[in-house]
């Protein structure tokens, strides 16, 4: 990568999905505005850059606060979804509303550090279409989260899904990359996998993730598992193939047991004794079949969701933008 800028300073959009973030939003927004102004002053980012706050159907006072901020700050646009649709959808909604030449997505708690946006912009100026924020280590995570995260990246790699290690949804996309991303019609969003699918010239910015300063994590174990499973089933059909292999292995085992029973019966004076030899294979095959049906069911459920082609979300209100020049895509 060359050190001199290869393209002009872009207008920048910072997209922030928020769910019940009243405790942290004002402070985070102030910090982002400060960063944005600094970038504008330094000439790395063009004037007219904006922050897009997306309210993902919060139940607390996030939306009234967002409206207030958007009315006060000319650089802030607040977007409200009609109900809670989850982080990935909220982020997609925000991205779809932007018109700027480069877009950064960051969580409302700014755990990823607003100061890391500047190096991302530097990479953009040097020609990257996608800049991944990558955590240099995971000291803020529990042992359990670190362990499971590592295992997950390994499994995904084995399944042939090429994720960027330790990258979540803190990234910069050029307009070109974002437009390509918005062409993906799927309902089950796993953005970190989809962005990887896009290709384009990419680079990485390493950073240390901070602790959340207020409010609590909106990603309990259940949601994390659900996102992880979505990542697997949206990007790989390997589990279906594994079922075929499992079927082959268990048939081979069954044939071996049948052969053993027949040989014992025909060529020796003994019969294979006991109920265990009947019941155990029965239980084994029964449970393996159920498990396989479950996995197949997961893929059918995914097909069902995709084939309906329902909109991923509905935008209820947009405050703070000259809404006329915003092209709404859902
Ligand atoms: N979030 C969202 N909708 C949800 C859950 C979370 O928009 O249904 C947002 C949340 O406000 C935050 C981001 O997604 O900006 C990441 O959530 P959080 O910081 O709680 O996750 P963690 O950092 O613990 O993984
Ligand atoms: Mg967080």
UniProtKB/TrEMBL annotation:
One of its GO terms (molecular function) is glycosyltransferase activity. Residues 14-181 form the Glycosyltransferase 2-like domain. InterPro entries: Glyco_trans_2-like, Glycosyltransferase_2, Nucleotide-diphossugar_trans. Pfam families: Glycos_transf_2 (PF00535). GO terms for cellular component: plasma membrane. The keyword Isomerase does not apply. Its main location: membrane. It is a multi-pass membrane protein. Keywords: Glycosyltransferase, Membrane, Transferase, Transmembrane, Transmembrane helix. It is found in: Membrane. The chain crosses the membrane at residues 240-263, 275-301. This is Glycosyltransferase involved in cell wall biosynthesis. It comes from Microbulbifer rhizosphaerae.
